[in-house]
Design goal:
It is a single chain. The protein is an alpha+beta fold. It has four domains: 4-171, P-loop containing nucleotide triphosphate hydrolases (Rossmann fold); 183-263, Elongation Factor Tu (Ef-tu), domain 3 (Beta Barrel); 272-377, Beta Barrel (Elongation Factor Tu (Ef-tu), domain 3); 521-625, Arc Repressor Mutant, subunit A, CATH 1.10.10. Helix content is 34%, strand content 29%. The protein contains 19 helices and 35 strands. Strands 7, 8, 9, 11, 12, 13, 15 and 16 form an eight-stranded antiparallel beta sheet that branches. It has a six-stranded mixed beta sheet with strand order 2-3-1-4-5-6, with helices on both faces. β12 (221-230) and β13 (233-235) form a beta hairpin. The longest helix is centred in the last third of the chain and has 21 residues, at 432-452. One of its GO terms (molecular function) is translation elongation factor activity.
Length: 634
């Protein structure tokens, strides 16, 4: 069985014993800062290893409980798989308990355990009251049926039981995706003497290896993972769900900050406009107005922006899930499905939270039409989202598909195996139905062109693509044409493309006149007039002359000597045989004139045509017949 990695979080009101409980479970003091020890409150995130066996590894994040450190709290719980909600037996549910519960709900954290701490300070009757109080707060939340564990961190009472419940719950929990692209939202940046810059965070997804080239986003800085540590132990790799410290080369500490994201792939989207689905807190103190400033907490990032509604101008109370948009002051890195918290900057208040529907939000008009479109986006299955992206862009490489669909690479490639999608050119995806539709369009366009110009060899490929390129990518058009040729729908001759059943021909209404023209040309033998005279005499319009001349030449009915003069094919062949039989291996111009009785006007173009056709070769003032057998020497 593949080993799984999890991070759990301690959440709850200030001074309810989260840090003490973490120490009791792990034997690690997570308050590192001098100020934390002096004030006996957690200011920064604290981390510790909790448990490890052959199946799982569990880390703990101790998050600050004080209202002023809510940013650190959000950054800490954003990457956890299970939360231990800590409530002190002597105080019960407090304001930060409620706020942390709401934040956990909005972040989509479903695994929870309730730890009632400091049980040695109160009697059993009071503990029952605290339990009742907590159950009231948990009613209707995902923690409604969460197990209760009574603990005392100083005496270690209940600690083994709590640890056992944590391990059992996580062994039944599915691990985060370790096979997709690596992503680690940075929550701490520091330096180690002699080592340089180190970043720390919870691996959201994917795997990172020592020596791997990575990127810091949204800054776009390229770095290398010089060394990886998991709980102060050097590791070759770090996996989704683990707490990891990564020593980076290629970047200075002052270039980085909490909120930056370390990634291994270009698949993630950097954006300032996101379509979202949000829910607001039950007891909203102040109304939320259209385009009101908000503070977005997503991953470890905190950024200012404005909220834009499309179906209201004010939000007064909780009213189910609301589809809207966040327009941010700075770029963030995100993907579909990422959870976030929204807070009011002043007066400070948690407004609510939700998830990213589309990280590539556009500008939309106010009204029900936009809401319906957002609802489609929200409800879309992976296949629907892939199809929508391809129908819009027509053709996309995998990296761009990942961005547009907000699907991870594993899910995306699995769905792209469906026969509905086509992979071509070694890098692009499109839809089968789209290829069929474009093929039909090309067929119709060729058919129409062939009916209009039946004597032409087909439509020039460049011209064909140019007319369609206004609405379709050239790379896709090239594929459809080549695919059509491969399957016998189209044919190509040099630069011309035509339908497989098409043969260039003289239109019926011009066939008789063409026959008359050829008869006149044949009758005049070798001493012909300019070709245009024959077209004119037969009543063939000037607009058809070029195409008709080419067609008659391709069908081997005439042999043009130059731009003006042409012979009927049978006349030309007879003249060649007459000249061949009347000369030896070599002959001069004068010999040809005598044999064919032609003036220089006809003779020179005739002989140059023989050279061009490879029948003769000019050697100084003579010409030699090619492919002639030399007489055997006796």
């Amino acid at each position: 069985m593949e080993k799984r990695y999890f991070t759990i979080g301690m959440a709850g009101h200030i001074d309810h014993g989260k840090t003490s409980l973490t120490k009791a479970l792990t034997n690690v003091e997570t308050d590192r800062l001098k100020e934390e020890k002096e004030r006996q409150i957690s200011i920064e995130l604290g981390f510790a290893p909790l448990y490890e066996d052959s199946e799982i590894q569990i880390s703990v994040v101790d998050v600050p409980g004080h209202e002023r450190f809510i940013r650190q709290m959000i950054a800490g719980v954003a990457g956890i798989d299970l939360v231990v909600l800590v409530v002190a037996a002597d105080e019960g549910v407090m304001p930060q308990t409620v706020e942390h519960l709401e934040i956990l709900k909005f972040l989509g954290i479903e695994n929870g355990i309730i730890a009632i701490t400091k049980i040695d300070r109160v009697d059993e009757e009071f503990i029952e009251l605290v339990k009742y109080d907590i159950l009231g707060e948990l009613k209707g939340t995902v923690f409604e049926d969460a197990p209760f564990v009574l603990v005392d961190s100083l005496s270690k009472k209940g600690i083994p039981e709590l640890k056992e419940v944590i391990i059992k719950t996580l062994k039944e929990t599915e691990m985060r995706d370790a096979k997709g692209a690596f992503r680690l939202p940075i929550d701490q940046v520091f330096t180690v003497k002699g080592q340089g810059t180190v970043v720390r965070g919870t691996v959201y997804e994917g795997t990172v290896e020592e020596g791997q080239v990575l990127k810091i986003m949204p800054k776009g800085l390229e770095v290398r993972a010089r060394q990886i540590q998991v709980h102060h132990q050097t590791a070759q790799k770090a996996y989704a769900g683990q707490r990891a410290a990564i020593n980076l080369s290629g970047v200075a500490k002052d270039e980085l900050e909490r909120g930056d994201v370390l990634i291994s792939s270009e698949h993630f989207i950097v954006t300032k406009t996101i379509d979202v689905a949000i829910q607001v807190v039950e007891d909203l103190e102040h109304m939320v107005k259209q385009r009101m400033p908000i503070k977005l907490h997503i991953g470890t990032t905190e950024v200012m922006g404005r909220i834009v509604f499309f179906d209201r101008n004010v939000l007064v109370e909780a009213n189910g899930e609301i589809l809207c948009q966040l327009r941010l002051n700075e770029e963030i890195l995100t993907k579909r499905g990422d959870r976030f918290i929204l807070r009011r900057p002043s007066p400070v208040e948690t407004i609510g939270g939700g998830w990213v529907v589309d990280p590539r939000g556009d500008k939309y008009k106010f009204g029900t039409k936009t809401i319906k479109e957002l609802e489609k986006k929200k409800a879309g299955t992976p296949k629907v989202r892939i199809s929508a992206a391809l129908m819009e862009a027509k053709s996309l490489p995998l990296t761009e598909l990942i961005k547009r669909t907000a699907l991870d690479e594993k899910t995306l490639t699995e769905h792209l195996k469906s026969e509905e999608f086509i992979f071509y050119n070694g890098k692009e995806y499109t839809m089968k139905i789209l290829v069929q539709s474009i093929e039909e369009d090309i067929y119709d366009q060729l058919h129409e062109y062939q009916n209009k110009y039946p004597m032409k060899p087909g439509l020039n490929k460049a011209e064909l693509l140019q007319t369609l390129q206004k609405r379709l990518p050239k790379i896709l058009l090239e594929f459809v044409v080549e695919n059509g040729i491969h399957h016998g729908v189209f044919k190509r001759q040099e630069q011309f493309v035509f339908t497989s059943s098409f043969v260039p021909h003289v239109p019926k209404n011009w066939q008789k006149r063409t026959e008359n023209m050829l008869e006149a040309l044949t009758k005049d033998g070798l001493k012909v007039r300019n070709l245009v005279d024959y077209f004119s005499q037969a009543g063939i319009p000037e607009s058809l002359e070029v195409d008709l001349k080419r067609l008659l030449e391709e069908e081997k009915l005439i042999v043009p000597l130059d731009e003006q003069i042409a012979y009927a094919a049978e006349v030309f062949s007879a003249a060649v045989e007459k000249l061949r039989s009347g000369t030896g291996l070599e002959f001069e111009v004068g010999d040809a004139k005598d044999i064919l009785d032609l003036s220089r006007k006809y003779m020179i173009p005739f002989l140059e045509k023989l050279d061009l056709l490879g029948l003769t070769k000019r050697i100084e003032n003579k010409r030699a017949w090619m492919n002639e057998k030399k007489p055997q020497s006796k």
